[in-house]
Amino acid sequence: MNGADAIVRSLQKEGVEYVFGYPGVAICPFYNSILGSGIRTVLVRQEQNAAHEAGGYARISGKVGVAVVTSGPGATNLITGIATAFADSIPLVCITGQVDSTLMGSDVFQEADISGACESFVKYSYIVRDAADIPRIMKEAFHIASTGRKGPVLIDVPQDIQMQPLSRFEYPEDVSLRTYKPTVEGHAVQIRKVMQELQKASRPLVCAGGGVHLSGAAPEVRWFVERYHIPVVTTMMGLGTLPTEHPLFYGMVGNNGSPCGNRAMMESDMVLMVGARVADRSIRQPELVMGDKVLVHIDVDPAEIGKNAGPTIPLVGDIGSIFREFNRKELELDFSEWTGVLNGYRTEVPAPEASEGGRVDPGAFIRTLSLAMEPDAVYVADVGQNQLWSCKNAVMREGRFLTSGGMGTMGYAVPAALGARLADPGRQVVAVCGDGGFQMTMMELATLQQYQIAVKIVVLRNNTLGLVRQYQHFSYKDRFSVVDLGAYPDLERLASAYDIPYLHLTDAGETERILKAFLAEPGTALLEVRIDPDETV
Amino acid sequence: MKRIYSVLVENRAGVLCKVAGLFWRRCFNIDSLAVGETDDPKVSNMIIVSSGDPRTLEQIEKQLNKKLDVIKVKTFDESESINRELLLVKIRCNRNNRRDIMETCEIMGATIVDMSKSVLMIQMCDTPERVQLFLDVIKGNSIVEISRTGTLALTKCAEPRN
Questions:
Q1: Interface touch A179/B66, C-beta < 8 Å
Q2: How far apart (Å, rounded) are the C-alpha atoms in residues A400 and A426?
């Protein structure tokens, strides 16, 4: 047995099903060992997508996603994917090959200081110096990635260490890290304080962030709010905590959020911020949520509490565990009067309409798409106008909404959808992109086809980088600069080059019929939707 | 506001870089930094002096605690601790100013630890403020070079009163 065998054995011990990656000389010992291991490999077409695919897989499976690439450019290509996972607290273990340990530091061929480069957006990183350390490091890496505030862990393994003989392999049962003991259970005193404040409050509000999904706590949160009729708003990452049409859901907050959601935030007298960072896109002016309100901030990461807004009651711990505690208390509370006020603020969602010569309205299209999808489907939005139209209009039922919320990485949707589909092959997965983001990762069409992974891809085509164009329209008075996507590829021929069924929609009146045909395709299919470049969101 | 962070870290390669990188990335100040091994060779102690508003100072502590190589963070301010810096300075001297320099050293409790015909090397170990004061006083002479540690600090022996 050598170091590479030990890595593969460790992956087996962790129950890893898939490795997303790209080989190269420095990681060849690993890719040699993985043959016959039962772990399935997915060859991506560019390393960044390996991290996104592992991330999509992690978000749907609830397990740690694994990406394995080679040294130098392989490793540096992975960086954007790692940073994307870090910003959204997605558990990944990323293994990079490295040049021989005896050559490290001498700038040899395909050497890059990847652990140094990634330092500020990994939860932790290792450079393996001795193959005997591999079982311990692997055990720790999976533990660190998947506990506390989740996130990516990097393991850099020099080629000679992968080939170093190992006398015995013993996978540790437990992890003992004196520096890492994340808090799981909320402090009883703080929990009691929250309950006392809730009894005093007349207009409480739950603002749910991505942490709710990371903790798998949506059912607990739902039980809590339904019991007392507490209204709920979410950040972009928290979408799906409640179904869109749930009577207690009042939309997304923030500068791209719903007027009703933001108004609820303004008028509430108590906010329970749950697994949300209070970052600029959700809460533009943190002082407003602090001023006249009781702010309860619940997060597994103590450093998030008080970073952007000083809470009245900080509560550190796992959201699921804390809400189970909340739910154990019996309170006589009912906030129906307050939700009644909020109901008056709701605005009617415009029904899809075929206007002006069949122009496809992006928002209406997205709403129809989401309703045509299976109720438990996974909706993956890319970044840009498509993402904002999706947040505002997609009707979530029992499904999940994935997007790159923190980093806003264009090109995320297709690879993340691929990973999501592998995590749950029985579930419908739809990726919605703009034509800019799609062209960043359309090489993954090959990966989808090679492994016969069925993802429905929607490309909203306006031949422009819509959100930047919109920004230049408003902020630069229509001085459009470098947003025109010229030499636009013929997506029909592109799809046929990959042997992928292609559909297109140009007339809103055809929406339901085309969507039906599109979603009925058994494998991957591409739907191009022509929209007006002047549309704003 | 000034704050001192006494940080126990795993004595591993790259840890100093990770901690310093954290300060850099999050735009926290490092006014002074001193690192050394503790009685346990697997553990190093970093004394970091930083300044900022109360929220920043709290964030520094939390972000340090988040680092997986950090074992323990203790924070205190100057009044709660004994602080020392070590200064070594070479000064050019001649017959005219040598007496003066020696007198200044005597007043400030600095010692001359090496000399040649034209250069004196002075050592001073004192609080950061007094080290700075000494430097300001001797600045009139021509300084050849200076080596100065960051602040070392330990909380005072007496139990803090509540």
A1: no
A2: 14
Alpha helices, H only, A88-179 = 114-118, 134-146, 159-163
Query: Is 3.30.70.260 the CATH classification of the domain at A188-343?
Result: no
Predicted structure pTM score: 0.93
For chain B, the structural domain boundaries read 2-76, 83-154
Rounded CA-CA distance B23/A452 in Å is: 47
Sort out which chain B residues have CB atoms less than 8 A from A141's CB and list them: none
The strand pairing partners of A234, in sequence order, are: A208, A252
CB spacing of A302 vs B65 below 8 angstroms: yes
Return the residue of B nearest to A308 by Cα: B55
Tell if the CB–CB gap between A178 and B59 is shorter than 8 Å: no
pLDDT per residue rounded down to tens, chain A (537 residues): 999 999 999 999 999 999 999 999 999 999 999 999 999 999 999 999 999 999 999 999 999 999 999 999 999 999 999 999 999 999 999 999 999 999 999 999 999 999 999 999 999 999 999 999 999 999 999 999 999 999 999 999 999 999 999 999 999 999 989 999 999 999 999 999 999 999 999 999 999 999 999 999 999 999 999 999 999 999 999 999 999 999 999 999 988 888 999 999 999 999 999 999 887 777 777 776 667 889 999 999 999 988 887 788 999 999 999 999 999 998 999 999 999 999 999 876 555 555 566 789 999 999 999 999 999 999 999 999 999 999 999 999 999 999 999 999 999 999 999 999 999 999 999 999 999 999 999 999 999 999 999 999 999 999 999 999 999 999 999 999 999 998 889 999 999 999 999 999 999 999 999 999 999 999 999 999 999 999 999
Domains B2-76 and B83-154 share a fold: yes
CATH 3.30.70.260 fits domain B2-76: yes
Rounded Cα distance between B101 and B140, Å, is 10
The answer regarding whether domain B83-154 maps to CATH 3.30.70.1150 reads yes
Residue among B10, B21, B62 minimizing CB distance to A179? B10
Neighbours of A178 (CB within 10 A): 9
Q: What is the CATH number of domain A362-530?
A: 3.40.50.970
Query: What's the CATH fold of domain A3-163?
Result: Rossmann fold (3.40.50)
Domain A362-530 in the same topology as domain A188-343 = yes
User: Choosing among A179, A299, A307, which should be mutated to test the B contact, i.e. which has the most B CBs within 10 A?
Assistant: A179
Specify the residue for token string 């950061």.
Answer: B128
Is A180 within 8 Å of B68 when comparing Cβ atoms?
A: yes
Structure tokens that stand for A259 in this block: 């007027």
* A303 Cβ under 8 Å from any chain B Cβ: yes
Please, are residues A241 and A234 in contact by the beta-carbon 8 Å criterion? yes
- Domain coordinates in residue numbering, chain A: 3-163, 188-343, 362-530
Does residue A306 contact residue B55 with C-beta atoms inside 8 Å? Answer: yes
Whether B21 sits inside 8 A of A119 (CB atoms) is yes
Q: Is A115 on the interface with B (CB under 8 A)?
A: yes
Indicate the length of chain A as a whole number.
537
Query: Is A250 in a helix, a strand, or coil?
Result: strand
